[in-house]
Design a protein that fits this description.
mainly alpha, 7 helices
Length: 177
């Protein structure tokens, strides 16, 4: 790790340590919201499978940003494994994501239906992942002690909240256009 990277890490860790709960919540909510926007945008990619892979990248980036904010050492492999375990354990998301991606093969109708489904699911799933990791990092957790089985119910609850959040974002975006 070079000096600049060490300084950035120290600054990011200091930020989460020096903010009160309201400040940390505002900052993590901002990070989650920005990544939800990115995840929803990926739903518009017309290429099957590419969108699904890009979504995994956005979600891993969110986990990376949250880990840096909380001063937790990031492990790309562990993060991807945890994301896969969490999303894979939640049957509706696990089934809808790849299906929404694959239905895009059907010209026009499939692309439209797949994009709309992927858009909402990607946003809700990213929202839930962010909230789960915030809860875990707030409690002092790391990647080494993260147990996807223990947070499945919270993930499902946050996925429902994420569906509402994504719907509100779509509604707000539609009103602005």
């Amino acid at each position: 790790m070079d000096t600049k990277e060490a300084e950035v890490k120290a600054t990011e860790a200091k930020t989460s340590e020096t903010l009160d709960w309201g400040g940390r919540k505002a900052e993590t909510d901002r990070m989650i919201r920005n990544h939800v926007y990115g995840a929803m945008g990926i739903g518009l990619i017309p290429l099957p499978v590419v969108d699904f892979l890009a979504l995994t990248g956005v979600q891993a980036r969110l986990v990376y940003k949250l880990s840096k904010f909380y001063g937790v050492d990031f492990s790309k492999d562990k993060a991807k494994g945890i994301i896969s375990a969490l999303v894979g354990s939640f049957v509706p998301v696990a089934a809808v994501g790849p299906l929404a991606s694959m239905i895009k093969i059907v010209p026009v109708i499939g692309q439209t239906a797949g994009a709309m489904t992927m858009l909402a699911t990607a946003g809700a799933c990213t929202f839930a992942l962010g909230r789960v990791f915030v809860q875990h990092f707030e409690s002092g957790g790391t990647f080494l002690d993260f147990d996807p089985e223990k947070v499945k119910a919270y993930f499902a609850e946050q996925f429902k909240e994420g569906q509402k959040f994504a719907a509100e974002l779509k509604k707000t975006a539609a009103q602005k256009s």
